[in-house]
Amino acid sequence: MNESDPNIQKLQNLLSCKRHEQPPPGYFERFPDELRRRLEAEELGEYSSLWHWFVTQFDAQPIVACAYGVALSGLLLAGFNLSDVFESEVPLAPVSAGPWMGWAPPAGRVADQSAGFAGRYQETAAATFPAALIPVNGIGSSRFASPNSLQARPALFMPLEN
Amino acid sequence: MMEAVLVNPPPAAADTPIAVEDRVLVKQAQRGDFEAYDELVRRHQERIYATLYNMTSNHEDAHDLAQEAFIKGFRALKSFKGEASFFTWIYRIAVNRTINFLKQRKRRPQMSLNDLDYRVEHDPDFIALISENTPRRDLNLLELQEKLNEAMQKLSHIHRLVVTLHDIQGLSHDEIGKIMDCNTGTVRSRLFYARQQLQAYLSDYLT
Question: Of A80, A157, B45, B69, which one has the greatest count of Cβ atoms within 10 A?
Answer without folding.
Answer: B69
